[in-house]
Amino acid sequence: MIKVRIGGWAGQGTVLAGVVLGEALAIGQGYEVVQTRSYSAAVRSGISFSDVIADRETVDELTIDIPDFMIIQYQKTLDAWRPLVKECRCLIIDSIQVHDIPDTKNLIRIPASDIAKDLGNTKVANIVLLGVLSKLLPELEHDALKEAIKRVVPKRYEENNIEALEKGYEYASEY
Amino acid sequence: MRAPGVYFQEGNIACAEGAMAAGLGLFAGYPITPASEIMHHLARALPKTGGRFIQMEDEIASMAAITGASWTGLKSMTATSGPGFSLMTENLGFAYMTETPCVIVNVQRAGPSTGQATKPGTGDVMQARFGSHGDYEMIALSPNSVQEMFDFTVKSFNFAEKYRTPVVLLADAGIGHIREKFTIPEKIDLVERKRPLTDDKEFFHSDAEDHVPPMPAFGDGRELLVTGSTHRGNGTRDTAGYETQDRLVRRLKAKIDDNRNDIIEWEEDEVDDAELVVVSYGSMSRPARGAVSKARQSGLKVGFFRPKVIWPSPEKRLRDIGTNSKILLAELSLRGYRMEVERCVGSENMHVYDRLNSLPTIDRIYRCIKEVMK
Amino acid sequence: MITGKELREKYIRNQPTAFCPGCGDGMVLNSMSRAVESLGILRKDIVAVSGIGCAAWVVSPYWRVDTLHTTHGRAIPHAIGVKVGNKDLNVVVVSGDGDCVGIGGNHLIHACRNNIDLTVIMINNGLYAMTGGQVAPTTEYGERTITTPYGNPSHGMDVTKIVKAAGASHVSRWTTYHMRELTKEVKYALRKKGLSFIEVLTQCPTRTGKKDRLSGLDMLQWYKENTSKTPEEGKITVGRFVDIDRPELADEIYGQITASGGTPR
User: Which member of A19, B35, B110, C38 has the lowest number of beta carbons within 10 Å of its beta carbon?
Assistant: First the structure.
């Protein structure tokens, strides 16, 4: 079973990243996938997160206890899940948004927001982070992610998002 | 409307797709979390299929509009959550009394009152059945996957048309807001309402075995009298007569009661030799089913039972199970289905795992199973 | 020209009606039937929708067209469903003042805003008659009713001003004294695209009449003496107040279906 949690602040495209990941695993790779989202009723504030749970058999687990991977896009999200930091296999952190980074070995920090800014669209930081995941999670096929982006993201942002994915993947490869 | 195929989508979107696949002619609704995605999707997609979409001023009006539209011969639907469903119950009773086919989707959230708008709950189970006033029966379905959000929406329309009655699709945010794969099949079986023959005069009484009278449409030239007051077979009001009230209200109830075997549906697994049967429905039934598998793998004699149609309840089957096994009801509310299950299996035989706000993990329910079996 | 007897046979069912002697509701029914007859609209193309109260009975069961007799205050949203469901139907709502602007006020406002093609006839007798003569949103300040035995501490409202502000295409007020004008107005309303609102001040000899010791005829006389077709101090103005053209909801919805490539089912 694959268990990934992506957490950020409302407006960071956290749930979209979950959708792209879920789409890649479900449609691209034929997994059974449950992707959840959680957000507060406020439109422009609050922690939002998305869990992706995938398996080769029916997935009846609709909530994640301890994720294998946690992608963290915002300081407050990390603060909320600090107890999980040591337990999960790997943390992927946007080091531009998160400053108080725990001192553990199981993490990779990437200036995703700055990389996105260089690509001319700060909104694609979420996909940069997914690029990192595609390097670290062996079951996840890079091409399936690319195809998922093509299906999920509006056409005019497609190229931008695919570039972001590649940048994240490269960064992780050199890490 | 999507072509047949496999999609990775949210439960609410699958519901909207199911409605269009069933031939939805008019949707009227009012925004509410966590049901709004259904109307967002339909606002864009429904007109392309020839269906009408209206956002009304409130849920009272939404329920009224779908009732009015149904009498023009269209399949109609609204979608809401608990606070809106409370407002709809007024006209839901009217739709029931006038035998108006329509579908009401309630994507339940944590209540009471405003509660937690984005969090799941199943506290409206009793309301779906008893929320309006007077003696009545209701058909309510409880999906537990994105696929079932599609399938059960179609099924809701089919029941509504077949039995000429409003049907509630009692979903919850735990299913409405998750994404999974679902398949839109090539062929979908649809039921259409019984139309009257030229000579038919009674549209509010039937001596047929299923108790369902034929339903004309406005504009057919039949000078219809459709009223929420007690009425005779030809629609004329009888504000005080014993016979009319007795015959009408009993027939409406019999329409659901006597067709119960056609309506009720459940999923069960290894119930027969089980010492404990976990009963669950809606999103909670997913981790509950997972916990049962886990318990069985560890050698415990545990079965699983899930009503797919929650009203009318699978009363007889629940009684049978309750005779041979202990029951653990797992639900996302304190009293959602509890009274009904307790009525069937008896309180001394029943254990409850109730939880609010969010779904538990499989492991959490597994521990509860072990506790109960100790 | 159709005779009174022929008109009654063609348009009225379930006679005799349950209306009290001297009630104005039958007069409104007469007026509506004459309007339909002279326009040549087929009865099968009319759907009459009503809520709860004496006025609701004007169409259900008495008017011989398709009728939908709904819940209290909710006639208008049911009628919207009918009209959007099949825009070829002529949809008429008959509602009392309590039904229309008391419990149903919000629906009325939004129907005017939508400018949905309905003819809304509000029969205004100034109180809740069927339930025993309680104070209504239209009861004047100081009036005594069974629930305002010391005089109405609140104020009655002019509904025509509300529906005008909300955007109705056509707004008018007449009384049961003005039968010819009323029939003409209903005719106009049935042909007018958009929401037509006609307030009909109607006598209730049973509730208001008994209290003031007035017969139905006395009350008609009162309407004659206390109304004016031009604004006049101390009198109620009658006539057509609004007659404008603006896009109508059902047309718009059908237009969007067609524009999006669909064909209305």
Answer: C38
